[in-house]
Specification:
The complex is a heterodimer of chains A (250) and B (489). Chain A is of the alpha/beta class and 250 residues long. Helix content of chain A is 36%, strand content 28%. At the A-B interface, helix 2, strand 7 and helix 3 of A face helix 1, helix 9 and helix 10 of B.
């Protein structure tokens, strides 16, 4: 589904990603872990098409397309979803209106008719239940005045609404208490199908108690320095990152 | 491969839309018009009055105004850079030639004129009107056609061109004209009073609720002309009317002057709602051309419990100088001002309102939303004045600015004068920016940048857009988006 080969990216001339290689297949859950500043969020942004970053080298193939050639909205319509680490507030734009616009734009891209209002509301009700989202939140402006936990839940709700093929969750667990964490993780698990895949970026192992990854990768200084199964996460929890960093240091 | 094709198609479409949408009313109608020579002097004022076959009192009014104007200087207090206007280089009267004067039926109107208004989305054919709006269509200096005049007359409502009102209802005109905006009011009001050529007149008799929206559509067509129109709306006791105003002009490299007056009188328990979508040609990307829009709009809540509500969406004009105001004379009267003003490229706007509380328990609400993009400057200027006897007066003002990019300016000039200690005046203001992160957030959900800006701006302006009549609200939403196209990225 997704194939990243030797990806290099910089911001204002400073190289952040220094040759990432990653293969993600349908049905898989990949966890990307790593210390602060290792390039985890940059990788997520580059895959979503944020133009703050410049790709200098490498290739990213997604469902047979050259991903880097697509605009952010085309990537979204092709099924890439980014769960933001810091969801953005858009005052005056209701969640309902926002989601309806997004969903119908994506449908238009696929050559589908826009959803009727009643179908849309039905779809929204189902997904709200799925992620245990407070009914009132959808009537409010996008993320405006939401608590940290509400914002993260709202990201998962949007993911449920848009039914992406590849979900990239950027530190969705940060700032969540244990109940919110469980709700978010449950949402992600319920949305899992043999046809879609997710990349879960996290700083801590605890999210992986709820979302069981097929692969764990350690990102450090812009490179994946170690990959393994879910047991790697436990090892990291126990030993920290230092033993891996030492291996890299020249 | 297929995807690439879709992309290309999409890009073409966006490009097409952007160029198409720039200013879609910029066309010129090729029609013979009758114009007087350029320049302004007393003879020109007399000539205009003569062309309109006016009674003596009108000529006197004009001449007094003209003599007063000659002694005045253009005001410079606004936050605007206004190039010097050469009044001797302007044509003050230009009328599309018509086969018979004062057309009565649709068949008598030049097909070219009809086509022009059709193109603007304004049908002069009553049969084709489904939305229940009566229109007075004004091109350059004259009114072309007023629809639904007869059916409105059955209810006692007078809705006609100002020129016709002068002929048919001189007593009403004499009584109310200048009663809210005297010719001595300001420089542009004096100028308008001297040379105004047409406009709309509307009279709603006691106890009548006007069953349809009344509207005036102003179109400038001829080159080098100024447009000076007057609108007078009188609502007698217990009357109600909702009034709409729209305006467009051709794309030209020269600036054109528009100086209008709108006067509203609301008597006891009357309610007048006045909505404007101002879309005069704003000039090109480099600030060449565009309309100079100097307008005096004021309403008088003369009777108890009367209400006047202004809603404006200002997207056009190179320069806008406009302060729709309410004089709250009657006890318990209510004044409202809801405004969205958008400036892009090199546009300048200095707009706001005045709420003058004179009666007891008077209430006013001001909601102003400024949006600046490009190299533009957008100022809110508002006065809330509570006079000594206005016990229990109440005002709430909210004044927000939204910036797109870092080359534009947003300014707020609130003036508050309170002479009554039992009154409450509140003012809130915010300034915000459309962030790249907001746009990226929308993009990531599949929403294109242009649509994202539309969504964000319309969300920001929602409070005001909701006040517009339905048909207008939809048009205004599209207009906001179009006006800001190309302003980010």
């Amino acid at each position: 589904m997704l194939s990243i080969k030797n990806l290099h990216a910089n911001i204002d001339g400073k190289e952040i990603l220094k040759g990432i290689n990653l293969e993600v297949k349908e049905g898989e859950v990949h966890a990307i872990m790593g210390p602060n500043g290792s390039g985890k969020s940059t990788l997520a942004s580059v895959l979503a098409g944020r133009d703050l970053f410049t790709v200098t080298e490498g290739k990213v193939t997604y469902l047979g397309h050259d991903l880097l050639e697509l605009s952010p909205e085309e990537r979204a319509s092709e099924g890439i979803f980014l769960g933001f680490q810091y969801p953005i507030e858009i005052p005056g734009v209701s969640m309902v209106n926002f989601m309806k616009t997004a969903l119908n734009e994506q449908r238009k891209h696929k050559g589908l008719e826009p959803l009727s209002s009643s179908d849309f509301l039905k779809h929204m009700r189902e997904k709200k239940e799925l992620v245990e989202l407070d009914t009132n939140l959808t009537n409010r402006s996008v993320n405006e005045g939401f608590s940290g936990g509400e914002k993260k839940k709202n990201e998962i709700f949007q993911m449920a609404m848009l039914e992406p093929k590849l979900a990239i969750l950027d530190e969705t667990d940060s700032g969540l208490d244990i109940d919110a964490l469980r709700i978010v993780a449950n949402g992600v698990n319920k949305l899992k199908t043999p046809k879609n895949a997710s990349i879960v970026i996290t700083h801590y192992q605890r999210l992986l108690d709820y979302i069981i990854p097929d692969y764990v990768h350690v990102l450090y200084d812009g490179k994946i320095i170690k990959s393994g199964g879910k047991e790697l996460a436990f090892e990291l929890e126990e030993k920290g990152y230092d033993w891996l960093k030492k291996g890299v240091a020249v | 491969m297929q995807l690439c094709k879709v992309m290309e198609k999409d890009q073409d479409k966006i490009l097409h839309e952007v160029t198409q949408n720039e200013y879609k009313y910029g066309f010129v109608t090729d029609i013979e018009s009758e114009s007087i020579a350029k320049g302004l002097n007393e003879d020109v004022v007399r000539l205009i009055s003569q062309k309109k076959n006016e009674p003596e009192f009108m000529l006197e009014f004009r001449l007094k105004a003209f003599r007063y104007w000659q002694k005045m200087k253009m005001p410079t207090w606004a936050h605007l850079k206004v190039p010097e206007i050469n009044y001797q280089d302007i044509i003050f009267y230009s009328a599309p030639k018509q086969k018979i004067s004062g057309p009565k039926s649709l068949d008598d109107i030049d097909p070219e004129l009809k086509a022009t208004f059709d193109k603007l989305g304004i049908s002069l054919d009553e049969q084709k009107h489904l939305s229940g709006i009566a229109v007075d269509a004004v091109m350059d200096s004259i009114s072309v056609k007023t629809t639904f005049k007869e059916s409105l007359a059955d209810l006692g409502i007078i809705f006609c061109s100002f020129s016709e009102a002068v002929q048919e209802h001189p007593d009403l005109v004499k009584k109310y004209m200048g009663s809210v905006v005297p010719y001595t009011d300001n420089y542009f009001a004096a100028l308008n009073s001297a040379v105004f050529s047409d406009g709309s007149f509307c009279f709603i008799p006691k106890g009548v609720r006007c069953p349809m929206e009344l509207s005036t559509y102003f179109r400038i067509n001829a080159a080098n002309t100024g447009q000076f129109e007057r609108t007078l709306i009188v609502a007698e006791d217990d009357a109600y009317v909702s009034y709409l105003e729209g305006c467009t002009a051709p794309r030209r490299d020269e600036n054109q002057l528009h100086a209008a007056i709108v006067e509203i009188i609301a008597n006891k328990n009357a309610y007048v709602k006045y909505s404007t979508v101002q879309n005069w040609y704003p000039g090109d990307k480099n600030g060449l051309g565009g309309i100079y829009n100097f307008v005096t709009k004021r309403g008088k809540c003369a009777g108890e419990n009367s209400k006047i509500s202004w809603t404006q969406v200002e997207t056009g004009s190179a320069i806008t100088w406009k302060y729709p105001s309410c004089i709250l004379l009657g006890d318990n009267s209510v004044g409202e001002f809801y405004s969205v003003a958008v400036t892009n490229n090199h546009q300048q706007a200095d707009t706001g309102t005045k709420m003058i509380h004179i009666g007891k328990n008077t209430k006013s609400t001001i909601v102003s939303k400024g949006i600046s993009a490009g190299f533009s400057n957008n100022s809110y200027r508002g006065l809330v004045k509570v006079t000594k006897n206005a016990t229990n007066a109440r005002n709430y003002s909210q004044c927000d600015s939204l910036l797109l990019g870092d080359k534009c300016g947003a300014h707020t000039f609130p003036y508050i004068e309170v002479d009554n200690k039992d009154s409450i005046v509140e003012h809130e203001a915010t300034t915000s920016k459309i962030g790249e992160d907001q746009i990226f957030y929308c993009n990531q959900r599949g929403i294109k940048t242009e649509d994202a800006i539309g969504l964000i701006v319309n969300g920001y302006a929602k409070e005001v857009l909701n006040k517009l009549p339905m048909e207008f609200a939809v048009e205004a939403q599209k207009l906001l988006q179009i006006s800001l196209e190309g302003s980010v990225g």
